[in-house]
Design brief:
By secondary structure, this protein is α+β, with helices and mostly antiparallel strands. The protein contains 16 helices and 32 strands.
Length: about 650
């Protein structure tokens, strides 16, 4: 449901005729040959336009009007005003502040950043109100229009929240706007009062004629659309491009060493490859908001836009561009999967509490897998890059002790309390539905291709679901996914879902890779085939304790070796080591975070060593026997002479399916 406590129907009301799609606020096409040789259309700030008053929709329903100011950006506080038209049928109205941001499954209690709340009538007379709980207020209105003013502290640089300083403004709507309970399908206007020379980028449509004194107004069909369209405001670079008749915009904020033209080319390739899967775009305009920050933190999807926080100075090698492409492909795929193809729990939303779903393996895990397929088919990565990605990431998953403890459906359901709030033992007893869902998605893709001679796989399953339900934004259940898989395979694959999504069976991927014409080898890091030419280093790699340490700053020139995790059944676990212990010596030799693995390597497997450590400032000592490391590296390459059936599967997997 929406912000109320009773489910409501998502608004399907069209945009009013007097609010057409226009260029972004305060923008004109650069003079001269605007397209240039690269097909990129650059947008530059322009003089503001005269405002035009819009008070009602074509249906005659007066919208809720929000006004957002930032008179002192350095204070990190937005000044927000919400004007609610008369609701004659109600003597009281309840205003509600969201508790979470769709796409990020954790309660964040955004109301904790609200200050200076005042509620008056349109003439400024104070109205009586009562706070009902942490995020709801009941207002005595006697059916009349009323006005809510408040400030929001915004100083968290993430895609899920809001941020404001003297360099730019960004908001994700659930962390900024009140909703009126029972009126969330009523149209909304939002006016932005920004510092001079700042431009506004958002997926919302701009009301024609506004722009005087930086007052820019945008229209939303209801609260759901309002909070699903983040805003980027400032002096960011704005670049646009078109694919067929669909317009794309990149609003790039921050300092980066990336070639912006190459970023645009990646976005163009990703968008085109994704549209090929679904047969076109479900929108006529899409906005990429990219924040180039000191440390990136991922992305958050929306119906017609996305926010991506990237590490701005991470483009010193090809890996930087590949990471950008992978993030863009994942988030862009969400414009279909989650935003339009979703189970009933994920829309309309109840913004006040957890919205539980058991399908995040489908929405997030399968999306994570297909992002790698998309950037491969888009030509951003190569076939060798694809095999290298599998070889690098599969051992990380396959060595996780918690990968087989909880079924994927339950991992999804528990996201609110475990994935986003992991305890110290999370690694040992759980796994992310992103990570396991990715590998399950790959396994299903290969199973489908084995059943169809390589012609159809997971992309075709999504196309089938899109044509059947997504185009009309109908809910999709797990049964719909199973049905589509069974239809493609021409046999029941229910056992697959039962074993790998609702069960904890080990995934059969190595066997599936071989059936797809790949040569697989699992190699110990001390083996001659490991790629390490130094025999001394290879020999020292055999020893293993099962304890991983993380560095913590301590005395000048040293970093404490603090235990981050101890694997169950390992020598370190038998010795009684646990989270937070500070290891100070191995067999009397002092260690820090960097030297701990080196000193461990001094001892052959089978040797018993003494470990000295602090636990809560008490010095302790224990002994364990060094074991042989279970670590294995994976080498993957295409078999030179695969069977014809295996070659067909491999070609279809990579995007070159055989013809019928």
């Amino acid at each position: 449901m929406t912000a109320s406590t009773t489910p409501t129907e998502r608004s399907s009301r069209p945009f009013p005729a007097q609010v057409p799609a226009l260029h972004p606020v305060g923008a004109v096409v650069e003079a001269g040959n605007s397209h240039g040789g690269d097909g990129i259309l650059r947008i530059m700030p322009s003089a503001p336009r005269a405002p035009r008053q819009v008070t009602t929709t074509t249906a005659g329903e007066e919208p809720i009007h929000y006004r957002v100011g930032m008179p002192d950006p350095q204070s990190h506080e937005y000044h927000v005003q919400m004007i609610v038209p008369a609701l004659p049928e109600r003597m009281t109205a309840t205003i509600v502040f969201s508790a979470w941001a769709p796409g990020s499954y954790m309660i964040r209690d955004f109301a904790r950043h609200v200050y200076g709340l005042e509620i008056t009538d349109r003439q400024g007379a104070r109205l009586g109100y009562q706070r009902l709980d942490k995020q709801r207020w009941s207002v005595t209105t006697a059916g009349r229009a009323f006005m809510v003013t408040y400030r929001v502290f915004a100083f968290e640089a993430s895609v899920r929240t809001s941020f404001l300083d003297d360099s730019h403004a960004y908001w994700n709507g659930t962390s900024l706007f009140f909703a009126v309970d029972g009126a969330t399908t009523r149209p909304c206007l939002v006016s932005v009062v920004a510092p001079r020379a700042w431009q506004v980028s958002t997926a919302l449509r701009r009301v024609p004629g506004t722009g005087k004194k930086q007052d820019n107004t945008f229209w939303a069909a209801g609260y759901d659309e309002l909070v699903d369209c983040p805003f980027e405001i400032g002096t960011h670079e704005l670049v646009t491009f078109k694919i067929d008749r669909t317009r794309f915009e990149l609003a790039l904020y921050g300092r980066t060493n990336a070639d912006v033209r190459r970023l645009v080319d990646i976005l163009r390739r990703v968008a085109r490859a994704t549209a090929t899967i679904f047969g076109g775009f479900p929108f006529d305009r899409y906005l990429f908001i990219v924040h180039a920050l000191p440390v990136g933190s991922g992305g958050l999807e929306h119906m017609a836009s996305v926010t991506m926080d990237i590490t701005g100075l991470s483009f010193e090698d090809e890996k930087g561009y590949q990471r950008f492409a992978d993030l863009a492909a994942h988030e862009f795929f969400h414009a279909w999967n989650v935003k339009r193809l979703h189970d009933p729990a994920l829309g309309p939303f109840d913004y006040t509490r957890e919205n539980y779903t058991r399908m995040l393996w489908f929405h997030e895990g399968f999306t994570d897998y297909l992002a790698n397929i998309i950037i491969l088919r888009a030509g951003v990565t190569s076939e060798q890059d694809f095999w290298g990605w599998i070889a690098e990431d599969w051992p990380k998953y396959a060595s996780r002790p918690g990968r087989g403890e909880t079924p994927l459906g339950e991992l999804s359901f528990e996201a609110w309390i475990k994935l986003y709030k992991p305890a110290d033992n999370h690694f040992n007893h759980s796994v992310s539905y992103y990570e396991k869902g990715l590998w399950v998605g790959m396994a299903l893709d290969l199973e489908l291709r084995l059943a169809t001679g390589g012609r159809q796989g997971l992309p075709e399953l999504f196309r089938r679901l899109w044509d059947r339900a997504g185009r009309r934004e109908a809910n999709v259940s797990e049964m719909d996914v199973r049905r589509a898989a069974n239809e493609i395979a021409s046999r029941s694959l229910d056992h697959f879902f039962d074993k790998y999504i609702h069960g904890t069976d080990e995934l059969p991927l190595p066997a599936l890779w071989r059936r797809a014409g790949l040569k697989i080898a699992f190699i110990a890091p001390w083996a001659p085939q490991s790629g390490e030419n130094d025999p001394v280093k290879r020999a020292r790699a055999r020893g293993w304790s099962g304890a991983s340490v993380q560095a913590q700053a301590h005395a000048p020139g040293s970093e404490r070796a603090v235990v981050k995790n101890v694997l169950p059944g390992s020598p370190a676990a038998a010795a009684g080591l646990t989270f937070g212990d500070e290891i100070v010596a191995i067999d009397g030799d002092r260690v820090n975070a960097a030297s701990f693995p080196r000193r461990l390597g001094d001892h052959r497997p089978g040797t018993t060593v003494t470990v000295t450590y602090f636990r809560r400032d008490q010095l302790r000592e224990s002994r364990f026997t060094v074991a042989v490391s279970p670590e294995r590296r994976v080498q993957i390459e295409a078999a030179r002479r695969p069977a014809a059936s295996a070659l067909a599967v491999r070609k279809g997997w990579l995007g070159h399916p055989p013809r019928k």
